[in-house]
From TrEMBL:
Keyword Transcription regulation applies: no
Entry's family note: Belongs to the oligopeptide OPT transporter family.
Membrane-spanning ranges: 91-109, 115-135, 156-174, 186-208, 251-272, 292-313, 325-345, 392-415, 450-468, 474-495
NCBIfam families attached to this UniProt entry: ISP4_OPT, OPT_sfam
Region annotation (Disordered) ranges: 1-39
Segments of skewed composition (Basic and acidic residues): 11-39
Record-given protein name: Tetrapeptide transporter OPT1/isp4
């Protein structure tokens, strides 16, 4: 098997640049006019346009050019072979297979605590030997064009996995309704709810691709990790650097093996290495020490860990720019290391009576807030029951988290205008300057903008149809407002993600606040409004990152569009089926003592938040004259 993989990699490296006597992309397009090669005709422009593009690329000597971003130059080759097969049976077969498995497994285990999640990196790694196996065993013909599983096919599979593996966050609303409120959630309702949020992201990413995908400054650091792995697996180049002659592939194998062995330490043999709070071991009964240095219920002043999963919990530091990491550290030091101490030890907002670091709400006895006592049988907030029970108290870190979210959502548009306004203006006026990768992509047909506009209209129609058909109480004007807010923030947040690898999508806070004021007393509508905004922008960033990944690998744009559509649709169908079955057939699901720990942790958190913001409402928490109005 190892020999087969290495020979496949060498063959792939040899086919990166076609021989001079091989048929060019233009010739393939010309032959396609007689019906001999429809696939090539579909991916290329009209012949006159192709000639013009080829002439421009030849005159600019693109092989001598490169990206202005150093990290991109190191990971992404500045060449393209338009004759390399991409839309092949083996690519689509493996892509669909991983979509079905990954989306189904992840949505199923999202209902459990502790959860098990498979990342798309698994698909990227496993699909390589699978693709090489299919290329070597399938007979040469329509389903197997050659014996080389190439990087474009590999990219197509990875894009599908990137979109399908993360479970749909709209599932949290479904879990809340079925598991905690006892409200029926038919399969049609689940499908329409998930579909509208997933495809909203595709529509926004496609409509705004000239702003946060195509410019060279928008290089999406997270995609460079994928590109480096592609290059490791598919290339056998071995340039000597500083006396080292080890190949990328061998280096990868060594690191992979070492990581596998090392993880047994913090992951199984000595789990204390994961949260290495050695100061708390010295004084386990000292409350202040545990509040300051504890990593679970404290502020984590001793952020030492030997577990890579902990290091990369939010973002891998290996793919984030150094300046972004410095900003994160400074922000953490002020907002989550110093400020909580001031608020907590001065007992501001009565925070001194509760845990310093928690994401729960409390009542006036210090116990977790019993949200079921203030929600009626119809799922509507009961104000009289709320008055008879207790006001809501939030712990220090939770209250600060909302304050940071409010500040971020205020300053983000201003930052975007000041620092990236000229880039947006250039994109809107058609004056963008593109690097070699985008110019190479001009060989392939663009996806018409009206395709994305149609998807956007369909998403809105599906969202409205779901609300009206299943009588959720979600007004049409509120759905329209959610679409407008998502569209207003998608560009600023995507630009930050594309340049710094920092996800600043805190629209859950904005959604809860706006819905809490405008749709007071409706917890379900509050959650639906929140996730329509939040998930729409999150999906737009995911689709945008994969569009950039396709650009780096020179996958034709229309093939990228097709694989994104298919992955989003299939994952929606699979997650609908798994959720419907699980919520109706797992005994005691979403209860704290469920035998197999299917306690619906995300649904429980969302249920509490929906009661706080959709039931009690922000007017009783943050309005002028209220306890936390200073936030």
């Amino acid at each position: 098997m190892a020999d087969m993989l290495q020979s496949a990699g060498r063959a792939q490296h040899d086919t990166t640049h076609p021989a001079k006597d091989e048929e060019s992309g233009i010739e393939r397009a010309r032959h396609s006019e007689s019906g001999s090669d429809a696939a090539a005709a579909d991916k290329l422009h009209d012949l006159d346009v192709v000639h013009a593009i080829e002439d421009e690329l030849a005159s600019n000597d693109v092989e001598e050019e490169n990206s202005p971003i150093e990290e991109v130059r190191a990971a992404v080759p500045n060449t393209d072979n338009p004759d390399m097969p991409c839309s092949t049976f083996r690519a689509w077969f493996l892509g669909v297979l991983f979509v079905l498995l990954g989306s189904g497994v992840n949505i199923f285990f999202s209902l459990r605590y502790p959860s098990v999640q498979i990342t798309s990196l698994v698909a990227q790694l496993v699909s390589y030997p699978c693709g090489c196996f299919l290329a070597k065993t399938l007979p040469i013909g329509r389903f197997n064009p050659d014996r080389n599983f190439n990087v474009k096919e590999h990219t197509l599979i990875t894009i599908m996995a990137n979109l399908a593996f993360p479970y749909a966050t709209m599932a949290n609303v479904i879990e809340m309704q079925k598991g905690f409120m006892g409200i029926d959630t038919p399969a049609g309702y689940i499908f329409m709810s998930i579909l509208s949020t997933q495809f909203l992201g595709l529509a926004m990413a496609g409509l705004c691709s000239e702003i946060f995908v195509e410019p060279s400054e928008m290089y999406w650091p997270s995609t460079l990790a994928n590109m480096a792995l592609f290059r490791t697996l598919h290339s056998r180049e071995n340039a000597v650097a500083d006396g080292w002659a080890m190949s990328r592939y061998r280096y990868f194998i060594y690191i992979f093996a070492a990581s596998f062995i090392w993880y047994w330490g913090p992951g199984f043999l000595f789990t204390a290495l994961s949260n290495f709070t050695w100061i708390c071991w010295i004084a386990p009964n000292n409350v202040v020490v545990n509040q300051l240095f504890g990593q679970i219920s404290g502020l984590g002043w001793s952020p030492i860990t030997f577990d890579w999963a902990q290091v990369a919990y939010n973002n891998s530091p290996l793919v984030s720019p150094f300046t972004a990491q410095v900003n994160v550290i400074v922000g953490w030091a002020f907002f989550y290391a110093v400020l909580p101490c001031i608020i907590y030890y001065k007992n501001i907002w009565y925070t001194g009576y509760f845990r310093m670091n928690a994401n729960a709400a409390y009542d006036n006895t210090g116990a977790s807030y019993n949200t079921t006592r203030v929600i009626g049988a119809d799922g509507v907030f009961d104000y009289e029951a709320y008055r008879a029970y207790s006001p809501i108290f939030l712990p220090t870190s939770f209250a600060i988290c909302f304050g940071v979210a409010f500040a971020l959502l205020t300053c983000l548009p201003i930052y975007t205008i000041l620092f990236h306004g000229h880039q947006i203006r250039a994109a809107v006026t058609g004056q963008n300057t593109y690097d070699v990768h985008q110019r190479l992509m001009r060989r392939y047909r663009d996806v018409p903008k009206w395709w994305y506009a149609v998807i956007l209209v369909i998403c809105f129609a599906v969202a409205v149809g779901s609300a009206e058909r299943y009588r959720t109480g979600f007004p049409v004007w509120a759905i329209f407002l959610a679409f407008v807010l998502a569209g207003g923030f998608v560009i600023p947040m995507s630009i930050v993600m594309a340049t710094s690898n920092q996800n600043v999508n805190m629209l859950w806070a904005l959604g809860e606040i706006i819905a809490g004021f405008l749709l007071r007393g409706r917890p379900i509508v509050n959650s639906s409004f929140k996730y329509l905004i939040y998930t729409g922008v999150s999906q737009a960033m995911a689709f945008g990152a994969d569009m950039k990944l396709a650009s780096y690998s020179k996958v034709p744009k229309r093939i990228t569009f097709a694989c994104q559509m298919l992955a989003a649709l299939l994952s929606t169908v699979v997650q609908t089926g798994v959720l419907t079955w699980a919520l109706n057939h797992i005994h005691g699901i979403c209860t704290p003592d469920q035998a197999d720990r299917f306690t619906c942790p995300q649904g429980r958190t969302n249920f509490v938040a929906s009661v706080v913001w959709g039931g009690v409402g922000p007017a009783r928490l943050y309005a002028v004259g209220q306890r936390r109005c200073g936030v």
